[in-house]
C-alpha cells in the first residue's frame, strides 16, 4: 500500500521534472539567435523595408551580398548620408544613384554598431533564404518557445489535482492510523460514516441543490449580460494585416489610417486606396511576402509590375470582419473620446501595436464604460468649452473638489449614449 | 369671473361624456391590442396546457436564440474613398426644392451618401431658412417604392435605348402638332432645353398647366400692367394687411416666404411693443384667418364684394355693394386703417377671378403699395399655367389635332377638371409620353413612361422670382434606372450632352454675366453651388418704373373717382375703366348667387395631389381641422344642426353632373351657406393602396372661359346617404386636462390685446406674475411649494440647461415642425386606422384651440411636445427608471430599458408620451411573418428605411417614446464646440422643429446662460409655463398670443383679477 503511494509521488515528481526540462531545451545552433541579428532585424523592418528587400529590387537595390560588394567604411558613409557621397562625386555612389532613377536615399542616424548589426542581419538572411521568405501559402509562424499561458494553466491544474489527491490520501491514512491506535488502546470507536451516506443525506442534497441553483442563476444572469459581448474576439481577416508591424514596428500613427477618430463617430476602416499611399512602393511584407499585399492591389486594380493602375478596373472593396460591435441603441463617438477627451486609443483597444491579429481588448459592456466615466478626469481648465460650468470652476478653485470627472458633468446619464 | 373658454372640438365644447373621460385618461381605450390578438389566439380556449406549451416554447426559443453564435458582421470601407464622404459625418448640400409651384431653398443632409433630411437654406432671400411640411417630407418620396424603376412602353418595362429610338423616330414622323404639356417651368435652363426641342421639332406647342390655377391674378396684371405674372409681395413692410379669402400663410402663392415676412411685424416685446394689423375676410377657416387680428366670415361670393366695398371706401368709386352691416362696418374700419398706412399696407385676395383681382390691384394702387409692398418688377416665375390654353389643348386632342404629347410634371388625368375628356383625348394622340416618376393616372394612359429622377437625384436650376436664381444638385446617384426629363428632351432633340454640362454652359452664358463679383466662371459656379442661390442685386428695378409708373403715378388725391381718371393719361384711364367694369362684374356675380356654395381648395399639406403617396404628409394633420388621411366635406355646425346632420355622417355632395361621397366635418368659422372639399385627395394610382384616400374634388372645378374657378354656385346639393365614416382626426386626441381645483379651468392658452399689452406687459399672463411674486401661493402641487428644484437645484444650475421658448403669437400652425420632427427622429407612420385609435406616434403636435364665437372663433396654435419638466411626474412612476432627468434638464428616455408599463404616459399632464403598439419600422427582426400584416406599415420596406436617421435609435414594439429635445443635435453641437475648444454658441444647436419653422416661433437654447435668446424670451413678461401651478417646472416656455384689436371687457377684467 505504501509502495504504491510512494510510487505515485515519485511519478509526479518525474513528470514535473520532465516538463520543465523540455521547456528549457533549446536549439543552440540557430543563426537567428544572436543579439546582433535581432537588432539588425528591428532596424531593417523598421527603416529599410519601404525601399529594400534582401533578394529583390524594389525602390532601391536588393541587399543580398551588399556586405561583400562594398567595403564597410563606404557603407557606413553611404547609409548615414548618401547625398554627401554623391555630391563628392564618389563613382560608386553616383553609379547607384543614376541606376535607380536618382531616387534619393534618405539619411539615417545609425551608429556604426547599428550598421554592423544590420549587415549581420542581411548576411544571415542571405545565407538562409528558405526561412527568410516563408512559403507562399503563408504557413503559420512556428509556435513561440516556452510556456504559453494555456500550458501554464494546464500544469498548475495538474499540480493542484495531484497535491489534492495526496492530501486526501494522507488524511485517510492518518484517519485509519488514528483509528487503529485508538482501537489498540481499547477505545470504542464508531464506524466511520461512509462518504456516500454523507453525500446523499437530505441536508447535503438540499445544500447541493441550493448551490446548483445559485450557480445556475448566476451563470444565466452572467451569460445573459454577456450575450453579444465578444471580448477577446480575434477573427481571421481577409487580409492578414498586422497592427504589430504597422503601428508597432513602423510606428505609423493610428489616425493616419483611422482618420475619422478625431473627427466623428466612426474611426473609419481605411479604404485600400489609402493603403496604396505606402504600398505602391512596399509590395512585399516581412512575414507573408507578396501574397497579402497583392490583395490590396486586387481591390484597387494596381499592376505591381507596371507600377500603374489598371484602366477601367472594377474595384472591389475589402470585406473586413467587424470586431467591435456596439448594439444599435448605443451611440458612441470616437472624436468625443479621442479629440475632446484626449483618450489614447490603447485605453480601450489595448496594446494594438503588439497585436499581430487584431482582437477586441475590452468587453465594451456598459459597466466598463461607466467605470471609466467615473474615474476619468475632464480637461476642465484646458478646454474653453467647460467655461460655462462656473459652479464647478469655483469649487475647484476653492479646493472644495479636487478634480472633475466625466461623471460630474453628466457622463453617467442615459441620454449621453442612448438616444 | 367668466373665463374665456378654449376648445379643440365640438365634443370638448359640449363636454361630451366620452370626451371628458378621455381627457382624464391618457389612453382613450383599454388595451385594444388584446382584442385584436384575441381574434388570432382565440383566448377563450386557452387552457393551462396551452400556457405550458407557450411557456415551454418560449424558454426553448430563448435558449436557442441565446446559444446561437454571434453573427459575423462585416465592415466594408470604400475601395476608393471619395474625398468628401467621411462615415458618420453628415454632409450638407445646398439645393432647391421646387415641385410644381412649391418652392424652398434647402440644404440636404446626407449621411454616407444617403439624403436623410431637408433643412432650410438661410442664404435664400426668399425663404430665408424656412421650410414647409411638403419640403420636409419630400426626402421620403425619394425612397418611394412605387416609383417606376425602368422606362416603360405600354406599361411594360423597357430600356432607354428602345425608348430613345422609337420616340425620336415617331416624333420625326408625326404630322400633327407636338405638344409639350408641363407644369410651371421656373427653370431657365429647362426653358432653354424646351426651346432647343422646339427648334428640332418646329411644330411643337408648349402648354403650361397648373392644377391649382392663379390665372386670376396673372391675367388681371396682364390687363392692367401688361405683365402676365404675380408680383412679389412684402408682408414685412405692411403695417395693415387685408386678406380676402387668401390663405397666404398656408397655401397662397409663396406661403413660406410670406410667413417669414409676416411674423417680422408680429414679434411683440417690450422693445418692439407694436405689431401689424391683420384683417381677414374669408368663407372657410384657414390658418391665415386663424392668425388674423380681425376675422370676418363672408360667403365666398361676397369676397369679391368685400374687395369692391373696400375699393369704394378708399375712394375708388365702384358700384354700390350690398353687404351685411357688420361686414360693412369692418370694411370701413379697415379702409380707415389702410389709408392711414399708405405705402405700408397690403390687400390680397385668393380669388381666381380676374375681375376681383383687378379691383384688388386698384385698391393697392390707391394705397400706393406698388413699389413698396408690391413689386411688379420682381415677379414670380411660378403659376404660369394657362387655363385657356389647357382647355384648348384638350379640345385639340379630342379632335385628333395633336400628333404627340409629352407630359412633364403634371397629372391632368387626375387633376384636370375634365380628366375623362383629357384621357379620351390622350388616347387619340398617337405618341404620348409621360415623365412621371410612377405609373400615375396620366402615365397609365401614355404609350411611354420615361421616369424622371427625383429632385434629390437631379441637376437643375430655378428662377423663382426674377433675379433670384437657385441651383439644384443631386445628392445621390439615381436609385433606379431613371433619367432626368431634361436629358430625355435633349436626347430627342439630338443633343447627347449630359444635362449637367448643358446647365453649366447655360449658366456660363446667361447668368454668369449678371454679376461682376467673380471673374472666373468656375469660381462663380462653385460659389453658387455651395450657396444654392444667386441673387442679382436690385433685379428689375427699371422694370418697376416702366410698368408701375404707368399706373402707380395715378395717385388718388381726392375721393372722387372721376377726378382721377383724367390725370394719369390714356393708358391709366383705360386701366381705370377696366377696373370699373371689373367691379361691376364682381358686384353682379355676388348679388346673383343664392343657395349653397361649394368651394374646392388646396389644403396646407396635400397640395394638388402630387404628394398623395407620401405617408409622412398624409399623416401630418391638416392644421385647422386636424384631419389626416383623407378629405371631407366641411360645413358650419349651424347648417348641420338645421339639417339634422351629425359629424362624420356620410354625405353626397353634388354639383353639375359630378358628385362625391365624403364624411361631414363641422368647421367652426365656416360660412353656413358654404360647403368645402379639399383638393388633392382621391388619387387612384398614387402608389400604395393605403395612400389612395379621400375623394377627388377636381371634377368640381369650373371654367369661366378664362380661368378655372374653384367656387361653384350653381346647382350645389348635399344629401345624407346614410352611415358614418370615422375620420383619422387628431384634434381631441391627447387633450390636456385643464381642470383645476374646484373645477376651475387652468388657462392653457393665454392671450391679450396689443393695447392692453402696451399698458401692462403682464396682461393675459397675470397668473405667472402672481406666482412669480408670491411663490408660496402655489395652490395645487405635489412637489412642495419651493420654487427651486429641491435636492437637484445645484445640479441643474451648473453647466447647461436646455429650454425651448415658443411664441404663440407667431406660430401659424403650418405643421412644418411636425414633419421635420418626424423625419429627424425616425417617428413611425401608423396609418389611418391607428390614428383613429389615437395611436399616432408624433412626438410633436400642434394643438389648435378655438375660443369665443362659435361661428367665427379665434384660433390659437400651440406646438406641443415633451415639456422636459424639471419636476417630471413621469419620472417618478417608472418602475425601471427608464425615464429620468439629466443634469442638463432633459427628460431622458432609455428605450432599451423601458418595459412598457406606460405608467409614465399615464402620469404626464401634457400627454406627450407615445407608446409603440407595433413594431412599425421593422426594428425587431422577429417581426416579419408574424400575425400582423407587414403591408400595413409603410416604413417596413428596406427602401423606405433608407431615410432613417442613423443617429437616432429605431424604436421597437412595446416601448414609450417622446420628444428628446433633439438630443442627438445637442450632443453633436456640444461635441463640435468641445473639439474646437470653444464655448458653445447659440447657433451650434438648432432643433429640427426650430430649424424647419418658417415663422421663427420656436427658439431652443441654454437657459442657464442669460445671454441666449431663449433665456431672454422665457424670462420676459409674455412667457408662461403650461400648467405651471402643478409645479412640474416645464422646460418649455410659451409666450402669450397678442391680437391687435380693441380690448374686450374680458381681458380688462382678467387684468385685475388674474386667475381665480
Q: How would you describe this protein?
A:
The complex is a heterodimer of chains A (419) and B (1060). Chain A has 419 residues and is mainly α. Chain A has four domains: 93 residues, Cytochrome c-like domain (Cytochrome Bc1 Complex, Chain D, domain 2, Orthogonal Bundle); 35 residues; 133 residues, no CATH class; 33 residues, no CATH class. Chain A is built from 19 helices and three strands. In chain A, a hairpin with a 4-residue loop joins β1 and β2. Chain A is extended, with a radius of gyration of 32 Å. Chain A starts with a helix and ends in a 21-residue tail after the last helix. The N terminus of chain A is likely disordered. In chain B, 32% of the residues lie in helices and 19% in strands. Chain B is globular. Chain B is an alpha/beta fold. Chain B has 37 helices and 44 strands. In chain B, strands 7-6-18-17-16-8-9 form a seven-stranded mixed sheet, sandwiched between helices. A seven-stranded mixed sheet of chain B has the order 30-22-27-24-26-25-31. A four-stranded parallel sheet of chain B has the order 13-12-11-14. Chains A and B meet through α14, β3, α16 and α19 of A and β2 and α34 of B. β3 of chain A pairs antiparallel with β2 of chain B.
